[in-house]
Amino acid sequence: MRRALAALLVGLALAACGSPPAAKDEPDVVAEGLRAFDRGDWVAAARLLREAVAKQPNDLRLHYSLAVAVTHLELRDEAIREFQWVLANAPAGSPEAIAARNWLLAAGALTKPRVASDSSGSGDSDDAAAATDPEHPEGAVHGQVTWTDGDPTVKIARIQLFLKGIKGQPNENFIKVLRASEEGRFHFSRVPVGSYRLMDRIAGEPRWRVKVTIAAGQDVAMDLTPQNSLRVRDDFPDGK
Fold first, then answer.
1. Do 90 and 100 contact (CB within 8 A), yes or no?
2. Of all helices (H) and strands (E), which one includes residue 32?
3. Where does a domain end: 106, 135, 161?
4. Distance of CA 146 to the CA centre of its chain
5. 154: pLDDT confidence band, cut at 50, 70 and 90?
6. Which of the listed residues 23, 44, 104, 231 has the most CB atoms within 10 Å of its CB?
7. Taking every pair of C-alpha atoms in the chain, what is the biggest distance, in angstroms?
8. What is the average per-residue pLDDT within 100-104?
9. To which H or E segment does residue 199 belong?
10. Using CA atoms, how far apart are residues 212 and 192, in angstroms rounded to an integer?
11. pLDDT tens-digit series, residues 23-63
12. 92 lies in which domain range?
């Protein structure tokens, strides 16, 4: 009896040793990609978001985040492809659709702006038309982007910035996108008068989210620094 029991235990032990190890959980490339995006690790974000898009090919946020990430890597063709997907699939008039359209126009990859249909029949044109209408007074905003995680403060080169209208105001659908110079300088020109959000990200938490009010003929100076970053100042705590 004892010999039989011992043999059984040995057999069970050998079976356990010979069984394949439990499969490890696959990494969550969606979550990892978005985390890399949020911390500005564009190389990792692009790599992970490509995998995420392959797994979830109809996810608007993933395509948009990938488009933004590859613009930071100067991968123009891929950015065009992703922003074109966003423009074709995002709801008309959504921030993603407007940002994609403006980026494609600025890149010369879109010959005509996409105008959101107005079911009310008011006939109001989109922000591109408003910006060129002489009856709409305009201004501008310029500044310098600097950052520091210690000492000294450094200029941030080629950072992408967004100037977006405020919800509930006449310019709420207006958005302009540009990339700062190698010295971190930026200049938004021909902006219809009104108040705007100035941000460095639309998808994910931005580093800056400040309010800028532009009057007719005025070129507002607004530097983006650690002193007015989101960790110190948030002019739109509800994100709107």
1. yes
2. helix 29-38
3. 106
4. 19
5. low
6. 104
7. 101
8. 81
9. strand 194-199
10. 12
11. 444 579 999 999 999 888 989 999 999 999 999 999 999 99
12. 29-106
In angstroms, the Cα distances linking 102 to 37, 55, 172, 174, 178 are: 21, 28, 15, 10, 9
Residues β-bridged to residue 147: 154
Domain assignment present for residue 142? The answer is yes
| Cα angle for residues 92, 98, 101 (degrees, 5° grid) | 105
Asked whether the beta carbons of 188 and 212 are under 8 A apart, the reply is no
Provide the 8-state DSSP code for 172.
T
Edge to edge, the sheet with strand 194-199 lists 175-179, 160-165, 194-199, 209-214
Total domain count for the chain? 2
According to DSSP H, which parts of 39-176 are helical?
Answer: 42-55, 60-72, 76-89, 95-106, 127-132
Q: How many CB atoms lie within 10 A of CB 169?
A: 12
Tell which residue, 86, 89, 70, has the closest CA to residue 78: 70
CATH of the domain at 218: 2.60.40.10
Tokens of 188: 């938004």
Task: Please name every residue paired with 194 in a beta bridge, in sequence order, or none if there are none.
Answer: 214
